[in-house]
Write a structure and sequence with these properties.
7 helices
Length: 187
């Protein structure tokens, strides 16, 4: 039964996660945290971090993580397969259609129409991650209750990413070390 639930959930995530990456996070959160309670919100934020640090797409890494947590290696295999299956089917079908109908203007309009939805899903994911980092599981979002160290770290990292064009991996490592050092010094 659990394998079927994992398959269904990650098949849906794979089928409806247009835009990849962070655009998949609201769908993963809905299935793994809200609907099935496979993960707590804190575990979900850890999942995001782990998925970013390991090679491969976020959705596939998440499927492997959740599947393994719920049902071991077999669960990880089922969830990962279910997550990639819709893409394989869809890409094969779309490649055929695109090759056959690529000059039709309606197809070009459809592709341009999907862009705002993908941007909205990415922004939603970013807001969820930022809220969890700044407030933890606290549902009262008063600005005085925010984690000001993490907010400062976020703003500094954002500055270096945007203004200085620093490599993302360097920012990830340095902010991780800064947070670790801060926790060691404070606790």
């Amino acid at each position: 039964m659990i394998y079927w639930q994992l398959f269904q959930s990650f098949f849906l995530i794979g089928a409806f996660s247009f835009g990849g990456g962070y655009a998949t996070l609201p769908l993963i959160q809905q299935e793994a945290v809200i609907q099935h309670h496979w993960l707590s919100m804190e575990e979900f934020t850890h999942l995001i971090t782990i998925s970013q640090m390991t090679p491969g797409p976020i959705a596939i890494n998440s499927a492997s993580f959740v599947g393994h947590k719920i049902a071991g290696i077999a669960g990880a295999s089922v969830a990962t397969f279910a997550c990639i299956l819709p893409s394989c089917i869809l890409v094969s079908f779309l490649a055929y259609l695109y090759k056959r109908f690529r000059k039709i203007p309606a197809l070009q309009i459809l592709l341009k129409t999907l862009r705002p939805a993908v941007v909205a899903m990415i922004a939603s994911s970013g807001a969820i991650i930022l809220q969890q980092a700044l407030y933890g599981s606290n549902t009262n979002f008063h600005w005085l209750q925010a984690n000001f160290f993490l907010l400062s770290l976020f703003l500094v990292a954002l500055y270096f990413l945007i203004k200085k064009k620093a490599p993302a991996i360097r920012i990830i490592v340095l902010t991780g070390l800064a947070n670790l050092l801060f926790k060691l010094l404070v606790h």
